[in-house]
Amino acid sequence: MAGDSADGSARSAGSAGSLTAAIESFLAYLHVERGLADATLAAYRSDLLDFAASRGASAGWDASVETPVHYLSALGAPAAGRRAALRPTTLRRRAASIRGFYRFCYAEGVIETDLAGRFDLPRQTRLLPEVLTVEEVERLLDARTGESAASLRDRALLELLYASGLRISEAVGLDLDDIDLDVALVRVIGKGDRERQVPVGEVAIAWLRRYVAEVRPGWLNRFKGDGRHGGPLFLSVRGERLDRRRAWEMLVAAARAAGLKDGISPHTLRHSFATHLLEGGADLRIVQELLGHASINTTQLYTHLTGERIKDVYARAHPRA
Known about the structure:
CATH class of the largest domain: Mainly Alpha
Largest sheet: 3 strands, antiparallel
Order of helices and strands: HHHHHHHHEEEHHHHHHH
Structural class: mainly alpha
Number of helices: 15
CATH superfamily of the largest domain: Intergrase catalytic core
Shape: globular
Number of domains: 2
CATH architecture of the largest domain: Orthogonal Bundle
Number of strands: 3
Strand content: under 5%
CATH topology of the largest domain: hpI Integrase, Chain A
Helix content: 55-70%
């Protein structure tokens, strides 16, 4: 009996060790061959190490689909006394990490059975993004109109976000050479290092011209970074590149000043940009290109959104709605 117990403990320890080793091999593959960003790799590592530490994972992770299925089920609907259930989007990401890991293990011969093909990802809830009306956008933009240098910079940034649909990280990451004020085009390096050119409306160009001419030169004198590409387009008062957090805080403050509901973020302007284009008759493929979406399926979300807005307008305006 003692021998059986020792053998069982050895097998369990060996399986646990092989699971950890397999996870490290998978992460190395993602880093070297897939070239994933550090933040993405950190998310994979966190997800998989949590799975490895879960009850029962070390004993049967490589032999039965029940191990990952039970783990994910527990995360989605925990019993009393356990941690709160994960949100559907987080649970789906966790499941995708584990399925990708199992696919890697099968392809590399670490496991004998394609377990990844035998469990499904949790269904993703389709949430429609928050969108502002044109009038609400104007109130938001006007909330950052003032005579101070910071107000002028903030208005130029908000105008650019709404005029181009850029992500906030893309906007604050721009250098002066990335935008052509005469041609009214901005060159953007988006997700996956995909480059695109986005036109910018004349109103936004006018505000950007004022900021670049009246404010930026004084702050640029304090800049100590790489100025090979003209230096950062959007600077802080200290001459540093404006960071995402500061830009986010500025927009939230402007939304409050404009009397808008809570939850407004830089992405709200991006959603509003796309929705207003489609409502104005823009082609879905053009909106996809402007937003930098790799897949048209991502952009199609906005077609559902405009449908909801059309029904809302109809309900409010039609006498027999």
